[in-house]
């Protein structure tokens, strides 16, 4: 893929493959975002019991601002790729020994709460080998089913409410994840978000080749994707927000004027405190600390919105 030509100046820490992955993801996200908006009608998940708001953020009607949310352990408990693997196993895409590997990686991820590059690379390699030769449309359809089976009840209500606050302010909200872009787009659509930036797997005539375009959308590649999308959409990154749990996403968080550490790992927590970034942790039963934008909406409100989305989707089948 040729360079798209509308990237803004960047630090040179990103590799050429990171830039390629970011550009490919941004291009895929922009193509799909209008379709997401056309087919979703999700019930609002608004915060109704919060004090100490900062009404100036998110800024109502600021079309130069947007929000970017990491997915794994930020929006959703666990890793989307592992849940996807479980769904593919159920549909006999691979053998029991491969499922055991997925299960171990997911258990480690849930316990550690951080992304291990070696585990994530193994998972991506496994997924690519599994989907090679399958049609993109087939995996998109299966992704809808897997969302209902394994992902819908793992969405963090607090993070979902933060995303809704941006939507209610008239801003676009994007997922940014190393998960396959097709799966990320399903999740974004089901949550009523604008779209998703994800890892782009190569396909020819609608069939997966088993290769990636560039590299997985991870670390610096996420920052490149956000930078590319912001340039294409005419966004002012200093007015944008980004949310993540992982220190691997510090490049993305550092791009925006409003970075947030959500369920942070130890390294990100320390970095966020050093930089005076805001933090939220939804992994305990304690009410989230007030950090200046609407805190977590009630579980019931978010569950209601998710249920409405699922019911709507099923009626349209």
Name some characteristics of this structure.
six-stranded parallel sheet, alpha/beta, 49% helix, single chain, 13% strand, two-stranded antiparallel sheet, 317 residues, 8 strands, disordered C terminus
Characterization of the model:
The protein has 317 residues and is α/β, with parallel strands linked by helices. The chain has 11 helices and 8 strands. The strands form 2 sheets. The protein has a 6-stranded parallel beta sheet, sandwiched between helices. Helix 1 packs parallel to helix 7, helix 1 crosses helix 8 and helix 5 packs across helix 7. The longest helix is centred in the N-terminal third of the chain and has 24 residues. The radius of gyration is 18 Å and the shape is globular. The N terminus and C terminus are likely disordered.
In short:
This protein has 317 residues and is an alpha/beta fold. Helices cover 49% and strands 13% of the residues.
Provide a count of the helices. 11
Q: How would you characterize the largest beta sheet?
A: 6 strands, parallel
**Total number of β-strand segments?**
8
What average pLDDT do the residues reach? 75
Radius of gyration computed on alpha carbons: 18 Å
The helix content is 40-55%
Secondary structural class: alpha/beta
Distance between the termini: 35 Å
Strand order of the largest sheet: 3-2-1-6-7-8
Name the shape in a single word: globular
Element order: H for helix, E for strand: HEHHHHHEHEEEHEHEHEH
Portion in beta strands: 5-15%
- The residue ranges in which pLDDT falls below 50 over 5 or more consecutive positions are 1-12, 34-55, 285-317
């Amino acid at each position: 893929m040729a360079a798209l030509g509308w990237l803004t100046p960047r630090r040179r820490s990103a590799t050429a493959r990171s830039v390629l992955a970011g550009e490919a993801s941004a291009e895929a996200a922009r193509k799909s975002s209008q379709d997401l908006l056309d087919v979703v009608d999700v019930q609002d998940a608004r915060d109704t019991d919060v004090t100490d708001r900062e009404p100036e953020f998110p800024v109502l009607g600021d079309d130069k601002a947007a929000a970017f949310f990491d997915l794994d352990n930020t929006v959703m408990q666990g890793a989307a790729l592992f849940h996807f693997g479980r769904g593919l196993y159920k549909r006999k895409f691979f053998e029991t020994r491969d499922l055991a590997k997925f299960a171990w990686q997911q258990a480690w991820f849930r316990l550690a709460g951080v992304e291990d590059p070696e585990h994530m690379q193994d998972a991506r390699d496994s997924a690519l080998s599994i989907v090679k030769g399958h049609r993109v449309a087939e995996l998109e359809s299966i992704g809808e089913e897997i969302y209902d089976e394994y992902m819908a009840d793992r969405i963090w209500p607090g993070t979902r409410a933060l995303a809704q606050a941006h939507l209610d302010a008239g801003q676009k909200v994007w997922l940014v994840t190393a998960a396959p872009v097709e799966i990320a787009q399903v999740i974004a659509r089901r949550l009523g978000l604008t779209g998703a930036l994800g890892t782009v797997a190569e396909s020819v005539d609608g069939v997966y080749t088993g290769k990636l375009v560039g590299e997985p959308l991870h670390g610096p590649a996420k920052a490149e994707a956000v930078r590319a999308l912001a340039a294409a959409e005419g966004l002012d990154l200093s007015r944008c927000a980004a949310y993540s749990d992982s220190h691997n996403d510090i490049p993305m968080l550092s791009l925006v004027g409003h970075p947030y550490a959500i369920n942070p790992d130890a390294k990100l927590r320390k970095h966020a405190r050093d930089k005076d970034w805001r933090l939220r942790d939804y992994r305990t039963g304690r009410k989230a600390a007030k950090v200046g934008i609407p805190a977590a909406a009630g579980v019931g409100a978010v569950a209601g919105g998710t249920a409405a989305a699922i019911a709507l989707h099923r009626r349209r089948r």
